[in-house]
Amino acid sequence: SSIIDELPRFLQDQIRMHVKLKLLRTVELFAGLSPACLAAVADVTVEEVYALDTVITEFGEAGDTMYFLEHGLVEVVTFTADGEEVTLANLKNGSFFGEMALIN
User: Fold this and answer.
1) Are strands 74-79 and 85-91 parallel, antiparallel or unpaired?
2) In degrees to the nearest 10, what's the CA dihedral of 30, 32, 36, 37?
3) pLDDT digits (tens, 9 = 90+) for 11-62
4) Taking the complete model, does pTM exceed 0.70, yes or no?
């Protein structure tokens, strides 16, 4: 249980919205959005927590989600023809991926 869980529901919702807006404002893709549009985007975001070593998405999957990394690290990997794992990128707090899902 966190300190936020002890607050009234409307305050919890306001804090969560503030955190979402703060994160979205750092994404260049959303830089030109009006505050109302940005709030609409924040309103449809869903917080998900993944355990260490969880596969979030795999190459070739049809994507329908854009992910924002608020806390933690995400390793983007691929595999060679021999099955050797190759790290393509290490994403950290404030990073995002899956943005092509918004365009398709």
Assistant:
1) antiparallel
2) -50
3) 999 998 998 999 888 888 888 999 999 999 999 888 888 999 899 988 878 8
4) yes
